[in-house]
Design goal:
Blueprint (H helix, E strand, L loop, with lengths): L2 H36 L2 H29 L1 H15 L1 H12 L5 H7 L18 H4 L1
Helix pairs in contact: 2-3
């Protein structure tokens, strides 16, 4: 081979290496764009919401199974929660049924507080030095 053949062969080898490098760069760029698309806030929140939906459905299904397995216990728990949440009205109702003494809140609200006068109170004569003489 002559010197010209070696130069041509080196150019071809350089062109192949450049093409291979550009293919690798394009492949990395495509992977980066795909990763950027997967890491958008909308995509992340969509994944979180979907996961929460599936987890909620699983929990609801487990709760239904538990209620089917023990309906009396589940009814007791629901009744206890309802009584806890409605304790104030139930106490007031029990007070009215017993004799009206349990409704302290209504009595306090019906009777207005006494008004204070804005003038200072006058001193009584027996508490002053003159009244003691």
């Amino acid at each position: 081979m002559t010197g010209l053949g070696k130069v041509t062969e080196a150019k071809l080898e350089a062109d192949r290496a450049r093409a291979k490098l550009l293919d690798s760069v394009h492949e990395i760029e495509n992977h980066a764009l795909a990763l950027k698309d997967r890491l958008t806030p909308r995509r992340i929140m969509g994944g979180i919401v979907d996961g929460a939906k599936h987890k909620g459905a699983d929990l609801a299904e487990d709760a239904v199974d538990a209620v089917r397995a023990r309906p009396i216990a589940a009814t007791g728990v629901v009744a206890a929660i309802a009584l806890f949440l409605a304790r104030e009205p139930l106490i007031d109702l029990a007070g009215k049924l017993v004799g009206g003494k349990g409704d302290k809140k209504a009595k306090n609200e019906a009777k207005p507080a006494p008004r204070r006068s804005r003038k200072p109170a006058a001193k009584k004569p027996e508490t002053t030095k003159e009244g003691l003489k």
